[in-house]
Amino acid sequence: MLEDIVKDFELIYASQLRQKQRESRALVIDIRDRKEYESEHWPGAVSYPYDQLERGTARLPKNRKLILYCDHGGGSMQMARMLGEQGYHVASVVGGYEAMKKISKNYFKNRENM
Hints:
Elements: H1 2-5, E1 10-13, H2 17-24, E2 27-30, H3 34-39, E3 40-41, E4 46-47, H4 50-55, E5 66-69, H5 74-85, E6 90-94, H6 96-103, E7 109-110
Parallel strand pairs: 1-6, 2-4, 2-5, 5-6
Antiparallel strand pairs: 3-7
Protein name: Rhodanese-like domain-containing protein
Pfam families: Rhodanese
């Protein structure tokens, strides 16, 4: 059941991201490949690729909400579950980068507008 899958983290929709980021001073984390992040990412997002988080080499704050996104949402859900089990307050963006891009076409940071 979906409730069992998401018991350790929250799911948020792309349309909620800006509001959630402001309200909770959340740290938005792009878990895609570093090159994808450098090409284009959500304003204020930091890059911690999936494999770096999986190895446990990233230093993440436990006193802030973490909002993860990947390409389509699957990887960020897996990572959110893992981090949630470790005691982090974490959320995953449903649909990931692709969903975010559809609702916020002009909001992303890329090399041309950084």
